[in-house]
Amino acid sequence: MPHLPPLRARRAALPFIAALVLAGCSGGGGEEEFTGTVVYDVARTGSAPDGGVTPTRVAVTWGRGGGFRLEQTGGLGAGVFIADFRDSTFFAVDSTERYAYPARIVDWDAGPAAGAGADSLTRPAEVEPTDEERTIAGHRCRVHRVVRSGAVRPPASARVCVAEDIRPRASRYEFIPFGTMSSSSPLPLMLGVREGLPLWMEVAVEGVVVTYQAASVSRRAPAASRFAVPRGYRIYQQPAS
User: How would you classify the pairing of strands 183-184 and 197-205?
Assistant: First the structure.
């Protein structure tokens, strides 16, 4: 299934692994909350072993009222995660076996993972704007340098291009399903950029460069079914201990 190994395993991993797999955005104050879908293409260059971590494409969908959907192609455990916060239902969806695996969710912007008590890995990034602007997926964005982040640490460096007019709700989630692999929100979400949505992100370390770039941005409101277990799927039941 998509994205990252369990948090305790990531903390023990090499720094460049954390740098290549984490990042983020958050809702801002005052603007209308974004609903719709953003699709990122992902590229990696460099000769260092990847270990099958890096995806090739990631789609993220936000719905009204607490719907969230993550779809990853390629990389560690490619697949689909869905969440509906209105009734606190979270699933990893296996379209091959037609199973839905119930999950619990860790929100890095709520509870012990947030605020002054957060550890250095989960604190939102500090970024610094530059004079460079770009147009990506039809939206203007400004390039920012990542000054400080638990996810991108020296010797790694990172830049993001932030669209201030696109502000989805904060979505720094870890999905921990029962019966299948754990996962998390993708790179342009986990970093926790507060200024808007990163439409582009580049992380460089020791000759390896990983780039996320938005291929499309749609403001079309998704159907509620996008955040529900598909009809005909079985829900995984944990074996009795």
Answer: unpaired
User: Which residues, in sequence order, are bridge partners of residue 81?
Assistant: 70, 92
* CB burial of residue 66 (10 Å; 0-12, 13-18, 19+): middle
Per-residue pLDDT reduced to its tens digit, 92-114: 999 888 999 999 998 988 865 55
Whole-angstrom Cα distance, residue 79 to residue 12?
Answer: 25
Per-chain mean pLDDT for the chain: 82
d(CA 155, CA 165): 32
Task: Extract the tokens encoding 191.
Answer: 């970093």
Any residues with CB less than 8 A from the CB of 210 and at least 6 apart, and which?
20, 42, 43, 44, 54, 187, 202, 203
State the pLDDT at residue 124: 87
Positions of the chain with pLDDT under 70 = 1-31, 77, 111-119, 151, 240-241
* CA 97/CA 205 separation, integer angstroms: 38
Amino acid identity of residue 28, one-letter, is G
Q: Is the peptide bond before 112 cis (omega within 30 degrees of 0)?
A: no
Separation CA 141–CA 154 (nearest Å): 25
